[in-house]
Amino acid sequence: MKAGFSMPLDILGLNNEVAEKVANKVKNKLNINFSTGDVLERVAGIFQDHFKCPYYIKNPTTISNDELSSLHFYSLNFGNKMSKILREDGYYRTDFTSKLVGRAIRSVSIDKINRDIPALSTVKLNQETAIDVEVLKHIVFESQILSPKVQILAYRSEEILGKIFDALSNEEKKGYTLLPKDFRLIYEAVKTQRDKKRVICDFIACMTDRYALEFFGRLTSENPQTIFKPF
């Protein structure tokens, strides 16, 4: 939402094709009966606090056609306004996401305790929260991750990271000497090629997007930002 890729109304107005794919994934993941209607109902529940109707109609039979038409356009305007506020206003967006995260945290319970290695104990979400998490996760995947705008970035990222890995793992040119001192010490300490490549992968995994682009620029560009800026 912050990046402008999606608005709440896009999620609330989910098309049937995406909703059906999400429903099938949730059903298979959690082994429950779950329909397209369930997906839309869950989405409405997630956003309900921010899209509640500001007033209620006591006796709908007394509404004239003109009043009903006015109410219809008012609801469209209200929904659009709230959607923009949630996307653009940091306060409301943070409040919305904080409530989602807080609810998820409060829904965590211990699953299995590993008494030999406590750090390997497992936790789980209660089913109601797990359903919401799966719904949102797969909506994002189907509507955003698979979209052309994100896939172009993914394609480009694969090329950038691949060239960084190839450069660092090039034994003939001693590519490992491009590693920062801490990773270089680890690289020199391990013995097998598998472990050495693992060190390079760990180094790349630690990179932020900005750092990866800068590193790639120094490897490939004739006019890098500067050779004197330390990594």
Short synopsis of the structure:
Helix content is 65%, strand content 4%. It has helices at 8-12, 16-30, 36-51, 65-88, 90-106, 127-145, 148-168, 181-189, 193-205, 209-220, and strands at residues 108-112, 122-125.
Description:
By secondary structure, the chain is mainly alpha-helical. The chain folds into two domains: 8-146, no CATH class; 149-220, no CATH class. It is 65% helix and 4% strand. It contains ten helices and two strands; from the N terminus they run H-H-H-H-H-E-E-H-H-H-H-H. It has helices spanning 8-12, 16-30, 36-51, 65-88, 90-106, 127-145, 148-168, 181-189, 193-205, 209-220, and strands at residues 108-112, 122-125. The chain has a two-stranded antiparallel ribbon with strand order 1-2. Helix 2 crosses helix 3 (36-51) and helix 8 packs antiparallel against helix 9 (193-205). The longest helix has 24 residues, at 65-88.
What topology emerges from the helices and strands here?
Layout: H1 8-12, H2 16-30, H3 36-51, H4 65-88, H5 90-106, E1 108-112, E2 122-125, H6 127-145, H7 148-168, H8 181-189, H9 193-205, H10 209-220
Antiparallel strand pairs: 1-2
Question: What tags apply to this protein structure?
Answer:
mainly alpha, elongated
Protein structure class: mainly alpha
Largest sheet: 2 strands, antiparallel
Oligomeric state as shown: single chain
Number of helices: 10
- Cross-sheet strand order for the largest sheet: 1-2
Number of strands: 2
Rg on CA atoms, Å:
25 Å
Average of per-residue pLDDT values: 85
Shape: elongated
Kindly report how far apart the N and C termini lie.
32 Å
Proportion in helices: 55-70%
Order of helices and strands: HHHHHEEHHHHH
Q: Uncertain segments of ≥5 residues (pLDDT<50)?
A: none
Number of spatially distinct domains: 2
Strand content bin:
under 5%
